[in-house]
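Data deposition worksheet. Section B asks for the primary sequence of the deposited chain exactly as it was used as input, without tags or linkers unless they were present during the calculation. Section C holds the resulting structure in token form. Section D is free text for depositor observations; keep each observation to a single sentence. Incomplete worksheets are returned to the depositor.
Section A, Depositor: J.P.
Section B:
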Amino acid sequence: MMIEGLEKINFLEYLINNQLKPFVRKIDLEAYYPREFLTALGKSGLLRSQSLSEKEILFREVRLVEEIAKICMTTAFTLWCHLASLTFVRKSGNSYLVNEILPSLENGELLGGTGLSNPMKYYAGLEPLHLKAKRTAGGYIISGQLPSVSNLGAHHWFGIIASVDDQNRIMAFVPCHANGLKLKEKLGYLGLNGSATFACDFQDVFIPDDWIIAKQADEFVQKIRPIFLLYQIPLGLGVTDASIQSIQKVCKKQGGCNQYLNIQPDELISQLKLLREKTYLLSESSVLTKYWRDLLQIRLDVVYLTSKAVHANMLHHGGAGYLHKSDTSRRLRESYFLVNLTPSIGHLEKMLQS
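Section C:
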């Protein structure tokens, strides 16, 4: 089923109302993974890139993440993982991945993860690469461990970067069913347990050349990391927007005493509007790599604004927000994930000052 034009917007609303909203509490409290919703997005044609310019793709996908994050940031984060994997493949130039794997990723038959938390920290000088690659006939042998990769499962692929030697690194796209790859589910987080997060142990995993995204990973990362970062920003935009709407619903409760709190909706609305405009403007840029530092700053600013908004939301709701199953406390927990999502708040501060 392919949905076109304005009908796509209406169908997204339909999907959110019927296949996401009824499951938000289950996602949050029972670590339920929203596979059916993500698959439906692909089936609807909302992730299709054929005949679209990069600007059109970026703008559409930024809006997708934001709209979903207003309802559930766990689901929006799993979509971010999937969009990151789409970006890797779309820009790979690998005919096998582009012709055989990309269509299935875009139509929901396959889903994707990133696996680039460790590499992003490596390129920022924060930690060594965890994966090693050894060249062999027809491909590479990968060994090492990744402590956490999200949006994984039986029909999922994800990106990795491994060092061949001190000067060379490769990037590959790996299916979760690859021989020698062991996955261990990770739960018990403060929030986002429904994100299908696993520790990944590579025990001499053979990666054929057909799965190689880039033989020069260092150069490839420079091309994809601005998009990788751009798609994270609407996670915060969506949660902030939802927090503002939640605050506005209780402004007259308890005799209107919330008007005396030091964070009010108008202040948050103004700050959100500015960051949203900057984000949308960058999403329409034809050369996103030119705006790397701008993206870093917006990504940092949205973390601080989201933290401020969810804190204000807790204050405005009082005791009702203190319930673990409340949307208010869920957004608070979601915001702490955004603080730690690579690049984390400290990681961002370091890059902006270097």
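Section D:
DSSP finds 13 helices and eight strands in the chain.
The radius of gyration is 20 Å.
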